[in-house]
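Objective 1b of the project was to move from sequence-level analysis to a structural picture of ligand recognition. The entry below was assembled by the postdoctoral researcher (A.K.) and checked by the PI before modelling. It contains the amino acid sequence of the target and the SMILES of the bound compound, pyridoxal-5'-phosphate.
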Amino acid sequence: MIRKVRFVDPVRVYHMIKNEIDNAYFAIMKKGDLIDREQLKDFEKNLAAFVGTKYAVGLNSGYDALHISLRAGGIGPGDEVIVPAHTFVATCSAVVNVGAKPVLVDVTKDFNIDVDKIEEAISAKTKGILPVHLSGYMADMPQIIKIAEKYNLVVVEDACQSLGSSINGKGAGAWGLTGCWSFYPFKILGGYGDGGAITTDDADVALFARRMRYNGEDRDTGEYHGHGFTCLLDNLQAAFLDVKLKYLPEWIKRRKKIAKQYQNALSDLSDILLPHYDKPGFDHIYQNYTIRSKQGNDFSEYLKSNGVEVLTQFRKPYYKHEALKLEDRGFPETEALSREVCSLPMNVEITDEEIDYVIKVVRSFYKK
Ligand SMILES: *Cc1c(COP(=O)(O)O)cnc(C)c1O
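Corresponding predicted holo structure:
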């Protein structure tokens, strides 16, 4: 009898790749290569190749990636940026922290921005769109790019949850001015601490980010090119991430298999909605397996009390947090799904026995 299925288990992953992680660690410790060294450059090269862009620039977090991307896009005070009403708060905070105004737009049943509602949110001040690819499934980028071209808007992709996803073979993070990545430990490519990156095809944007992450300094000449920040991806994290990146294609296959197992075992339950959509060409890499249960909190609490660790992001939408002072224009789909979301354990370290247990607990809730 299993008593606990964890949402993610970093210790298990460590043991799966222990030799390589340990070797990366000792190689760095023996040389004292801590900041902006070979490991970071290698990882950037491999990340860019994986995403399908010319450049990748390692940063300290996904938030930094968003923040620096907006600056690279020339977005600042007086500008408006379109963001989805259902996302992690960092998407919106990056807009606020460059002095611009976030304009929220509701999402659709796939948790991503409703492209049919974008145009009505555009004003004379709108300068950018910040679509989010939530849970491993991309926002409708062909449509978003079309709208952006029509209104001459900068597109920054919050791809923090979708490394390896694609539409018609074109990777997440390769559509906009930049793609923004997070290597927070829970992410599909998780480090051993914070981490992030941007990917881009634009040489000027890559150069801008390289300088801004290092206090505005061009490290070759010592010249300051602006007031910057301190937000490099640590060399040590880059080395660990580079080890894990090699496994990602294989790990994504495993995730898809787990998603199939959940689908096969749960699709007959009429009170839950599973994250399987039929948009041709859209790939799902299942960063999260987020289902919707009509029983909301009763459902998620039942799973927790039976030892199944689940996430309920986000029961309270970010725009309802008073201190953020955001305008709630009414987002019915976000409201509805916020009551119902529940992400089941989805990771490469889970065993088949544990998956069966999760399925058993879900089914037992609906037998009551
Ligand atoms: C994780 C995440 C971020 C922020 O990443 P950090 O590395 O934690 O700063 C931003 N947006 C989305 C959608 C995320 O999931």
